[in-house]
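To: structure desk
From: M.T.
Subject: fold request, one chain
Message: Could you run this one when you get a chance? Sequence is below, nothing fancy, just the single chain.
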Amino acid sequence: MNQVKVSIITSCFKGERYLEGFLQNISEQTTLDRMEVILVHNEPTKKEIALVNIFQKQYPGIINHIVINPVELLSKSMNRCIKEAKGDYVTILNIDDLRTPNSLKMQMEVLDENPDVALTYGDFIIVDKICHTTGKLINLPEFKKEKFIRGMFCGPFPLWRKEINEKIGYFDEQFISGADFDLIIRIALKYKMKKTQGILGYYLNKHVGLSTRRRGSQPIERTVIELRYGIYNKVDFLYYKKALRYKIYQIFFNDQWFPINSFCSNYDNLIRDKKLKIFLSLTTYPLRFIQKIISFILRGIL
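Reply: Done. Structure tokens follow.
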């Protein structure tokens, strides 16, 4: 059996309508002989189990199928995947998205050729129908640390070196939808990233996913992350009270709480500098904003 170079991590829950297309897409990857899929399957149906079994007979040894009952949070499932992964490289592939056949090969080559780069990402197309490949092209920017620690610019197909999770931690299991954004910022704070040229895949957006549904947890968790990393000028005060329910300066995984500064180089200095910057610029903000900043201070957030 060939050595696993890259591990695809994914979680499935109520994914019956997507699973067949996902498995077909896996079989089309040009790196099939050097990859594995860690599939954490939450409360699978009989049809879902049958689909996985058919694939395993056709392509033995590709899928590490982990059945979970009862259902667990996506962030917890993804951490479970990373710990099971055998590859040097790890990448996310959501059950409703598709990768272009050569995308993993292209990304692996970027990391192989750039040992100082920890993560690579690339352009993708947003589609609104299952298994479609026509839609809106999203052209992502080249990596700049100052930009990537303020927003999610890696897209849905990042590929990173598994070893760095020991340095920057795992997905924060407090989050329902924002765990990938949070993890990407921690990587950007410590390591270099590099864009892979070419289209990596097709991202399904029907506004029903954990990170895209209009009334989901995404805006609240985005606010938590903005407070966590000092992105104060982006904070939407409509959500800040609910954001205070989270432990902003701690990360939860492995059934333990860890202080954020144990995974982020110079974190305390970073936050102190951002606080100073926001205070020095207060005169340019309207009174309501200043009142909210004071409210943050009194609550011990800033």
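Reply (cont.): The longest helix spans residues 267-280. Let me know if you need anything else for the meeting.
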